[in-house]
Amino acid sequence: MIATTWRVIGVGFSLVVVLAAILLWGVDPGVTDFRGTGVDQVVFWTYDLRTDNLTVLMLAVVGVVSTCVQVYSIGYVHERVASYTALVTLFTAAMVTVVVADSLFLLLIGWEVMGACSYLLIGHYWERRDARSGAMKAFLMTRLGDVGFLFGIFVLGIGYGTFRISDLGAGSISPAVLTTGTVLLLVGVIGKSAQVPLQTWLPDAMPGPSPVSALIHAATMVAAGVFLIARLFDLFVEARTTLTILAIVACVTMLFAALCAMAAVEVKRVLAWSTVSQLAIMFSGLALGTEDGRHAALFHLATHAAFKGLLFLCAGVLLHQVGSAAFIVLRRYTRKGALRKQLRVTFVTMTIGLAALAGVPGLAGFFSKDSVIEAAWHVARDGSTVGWIVLVSVCLTAALTAFYCVRLWLWTFFRTPALAGALGAFEDDDAMADLDEPDTSKLKDAPWVMLAPLIVLALAVFVIGYLDGVHLAWGIALLTTVLAILGALPAYSLWRRGADPRPVVLEHEFGFDAAYQRGVVVPVEWFAKLTVLGDRDVIGAYVRAAGRAGTLASAGFRKLQTGNVQTYLTAAVVGVVALAVLAGVIAS
Question: I need a surface site. Which of 77, 271, 329, 555 has the fewest CB within 10 A?
Fold first, then answer.
């Protein structure tokens, strides 16, 4: 109990530090002033740190979400608490390092420590095979992207003659070098933020504890990619080719991930694909290359942290209290309305989170998503192809988002009038037979130590949207509201009929995992086996033969050293006679 108290105090103290930074440096923490250029430099030993509006925004996001996660974890995590607490704290510290760094190498340290912590936290339940494989997959795919990230740092640092972030762009650099450096950084961002084609690790990371999922998806790890591009925004604006690549990747990813979320049958997996899609919306705002686009992307980052952290913690309550967050299991409890009636706080807060994600007017997600669409419209109106692509993609994604939010809400908390035939993939599962009539007498909401963070984040979902100052473009607001309704109605209709739209291509998530298995994993395994065979049967054979020859030679020489004087004299006489005969033969 003492340890848990101290960990909450420690993380909560970070919020005090953020407030102190605001008072000392006079930086406006609100999302209204992302355009500020003033930067205060701080030198701490040999490391360069910085504070500006973006820094304070991210520190506030990380501090609030991390505090909620630590408090929530007191009631959620009961196994290996010490290591879990240490890793979550280190994870948070690594993200803070990335945020405050004014050195590319210091940023790289925080970037890599986050990757290591995510591997260990995703595999917290290491006795489960899916947790081990998910952790390994996350580690390998993000490390693959980080190879490009490292070389990007070298290219930009050497090109500008400095590795100090605030000095990048001050010197001259050829367009080719700038494009190469930013594209390499983008490779690392794509891996860290789970964008196409390195997107499959994030949904498979769901076996980790739900508080860890909330931290990864809301405040650390995947948000680091958005932060990095926002931090180096001026460089990316100069590299227009890189922004075009980013726009294409973002638009493909947001639609791809939204379609996958429409077919997922487990709450956390739906939310994971949703995170991939929402991150792509942020990247699309940055890809516009305007200050309005950057502002909108960061605004959406802040609102997303609130409602996505809330949703993952709500999913954790389902796992903690029910034992599963798969739709087919939750349906057994919904037959009698148990989830709505006995998990009232969870139901209300999760409803708020899903409404914000779907873009219901008045909630945070509505304002931030509209700001991205508005920024895209301004760029598209000037004749930009990228602007039109982003505008259309975000609008389509908004409709798809409303679809899977309503689907998730209805299938989780409400009884389907015609259950037979729905979720057919589970019909042959014998384990489901025991769940037809679950015992709901002991079902109750989570303890208050877990519910309090839900309430805090739910309030943030209501408030944070108004911190930007409500400047609605009524035409865009009407458009997004109509899109949300158009997405919600089909989900409601399918739910009423007990149908679940999961074509094979969506059920298998477009076959990316299978393709990677055949195209990457299997060849690598064969090359690994070939390498082992070459090392063992070729190189190793020569080494073993050399050793065996030496052993045999030493054994032969050992037989000559008998210690018998007569043997030595006989050998000497035979040798002399042999030499004499040989000399005679040669002389003749």
Answer: 555
